[in-house]
Specification:
Blueprint (H helix, E strand, L loop, with lengths): L1 E3 L1 H6 L12 E7 L6 E6 L19 H18 L6 E8 L5 H15 L6 E4 L1 H9 L5 E6 L3 E6 L6 E2 L11 H14 L6 H10 L7 H6 L5 H4 L3 H9 L3 H25 L5 E5 L1 H4 L3 H11 L1
Parallel strand pairs: 1-9, 4-5, 6-9
Antiparallel strand pairs: 2-3, 2-4, 6-7, 7-8
Length: 294
């Protein structure tokens, strides 16, 4: 079991490691006379727009194209190259999911970047995340940040997405927390101190309006997506509601890991976890997760 942490992403250099985030991954190959040089870098979270949930739908929007174009300029500047130097530009983007949408997505990205079509490779971000997380030939990754990314491979070149549309519903600690607090409010669940933490975090003074404010989407998305630390803190303190949530999350993460490892047909496959939710988990949670997977 390997952690793909925020520290690793921030500290990696341009030549040795591929960093990853929830939305974008870029890989550059530069022309040389004798060999190819590879430089890899991440999309830092302070650049991402919070409203780009699925970064690309059936075709890339004008906004997405503008963001990709600006990012490529920034990365070329950091690498001290121009676009004409690129032999290949590989992109892993959230939303590249369906075969019948690929041609339009690829064409839109090609036009946005101003590169020849044959130099642009486009895949789902889970594929690049797996490559960036580990060099192991048999491996799997589960990232839980803004959304979910999961992929596995049994060998190099056999990278495969796992429930990339999330139809199987990976357990989301944050969404389940919202529902659990609602049950506390109406009496279907035991009221614990975790409810007060959530109300304070959301800035809700009148708990009777909790469900209404959630339904009307009055709570800022950044607050809804940053509740994992509240749950983990309460879990460490023994809050019953938090214990139930964390137990369910750990069980589902381990179940996903076992399913992907089984598909690699290699019991020794490396399992990697990354993304904001995992990064915020305490050491005790990691020991629990590792025990469940082993």
């Amino acid at each position: 079991v390997k952690r793909h942490t925020a520290y690793e992403m921030k500290e990696c250099d341009w030549s040795s490691h591929l960093c990853s985030s929830d939305l974008f991954h870029f890989i550059f190959f530069f022309k040389q006379t004798t060999a190819y040089e590879i430089k890899e870098c991440d999309w830092s979270s302070d650049v991402c727009s919070s409203d780009l949930w699925c970064i690309m739908d059936a075709t890339p929007s004008r906004q997405v194209c503008a963001v990709l174009n600006d990012l490529l300029d920034e990365l070329c500047r950091k690498a001290a190259v121009c676009r004409d130097d690129l032999a290949c530009c590989g992109l892993g983007i959230n939303g590249v999911d369906l075969e019948d949408e690929y041609a339009d997505q690829h064409q839109g990205v090609v036009e946005a970047l101003g590169l020849p079509a044959e130099r642009v490779s486009l895949v789902n971000d889970g594929i690049v995340a797996l490559w960036g997380a580990t060099p192991a030939s048999a491996a799997a990754i589960l990232q839980h940040g803004t959304g979910f990314t999961s992929a596995y491979r049994s060998r190099y070149g056999a990278e495969t997405l796992f429930d990339h549309l999330n139809i199987g519903r990976q357990f989301d600690l944050r969404n389940e927390l919202v529902a659990q607090v609602a049950r506390m409010m109406d009496g279907r669940a035991e009221h614990t101190p975790l409810a007060e933490r959530v109300l304070r975090h959301f800035g809700i003074e009148d708990e009777s309006r909790y469900c209404e404010l959630i339904y009307q989407r009055c709570i800022p998305v950044e607050r809804l997506k940053t509740t994992a630390p509240l749950v983990f803190e309460a879990w460490l303190e023994g809050d019953p509601a938090a214990v139930a949530l964390v137990d369910s999350a750990a069980d589902d993460y381990a179940l996903t890991a076992h399913a992907m490892i089984a598909r690699t047909e290699n019991p020794a496959a490396e399992m990697v976890f990354g993304g904001g939710v995992f990064q915020q988990a305490p050491e005790r949670f990691w020991k629990r997760l590792e025990r469940d997977i082993r």
